[in-house]
Amino acid sequence: MARTPSNMLPLGTELPDTVLPDPAGETWKLSQRMGEKGLVVMFICNHCPFVLHIAPFLEELNDKLNDMGIRCIAISSNDVKEYPDDAPDKMALFAKEYKLAFPYLYDESQKVAKSFDAACTPDFFLFDRNRRLMYRGQLDESRPGNDVPVTGADLLAAAEQVAQGKEPPADQQKPSLGCNIKWKASS
């Protein structure tokens, strides 16, 4: 299991707005998913042990963020030719199994992951109502095998500040850690 840290996109970066399909073929524009107070964009996939570790918490995370006026959207950017467990049909099953009440989109070209400078799964990006990046990094300190409970403490603390119109402290933002995004081989 690779342990890849996130790249920490510069704070203040504008939401890379794009349109992506969900497994059913419906398209979603990221900015149209924006909540009254903001948007969390998460890069996940179906097979990564780090994602599977937090997956049972994603429904609760979504509920807590929605209560703050912040909506969620998830994106899978993995190369499905080399990693067929991450294919769109399996994404739909993952979303159903973990009761994801937010769109789970497929970034086939991997351009969206590159525009976010996403590096791993899971990787979290919190944008305020003005589409400016306020937080990027880990959900919390929990990792597979470290016996720390999944609480979403880091992301939720930042979300509370964004919901109040404040900027989360940059020095308290830690990179996420997970499996590297499975990039397509260059031709």
- Amino- and carboxy-terminal Cα gap: 26 Å
Write the CATH homologous superfamily.
Glutaredoxin
Q: Strand content of the residues, in percent?
A: 15-25%
Question: What's the order of the H and E elements?
Answer: EEEEHHEHEHEEEHE
Helix coverage percent: 10-25%
Instruction: Characterize the largest beta sheet: strand count, sense, and whether it forms a barrel.
Output: 5 strands, mixed
Spatial strand sequence of the major β-sheet: 6-5-4-8-9
What does this structure look like?
By secondary structure, the protein is of the alpha+beta class. It has a single domain, classed as Glutaredoxin (3-Layer(aba) Sandwich), CATH 3.40.30. The strands form three sheets. It has a five-stranded mixed sheet.
Name a few traits of the molecule.
187 residues, 23% helix, alpha+beta, single chain, 3-stranded antiparallel beta sheet, Glutaredoxin
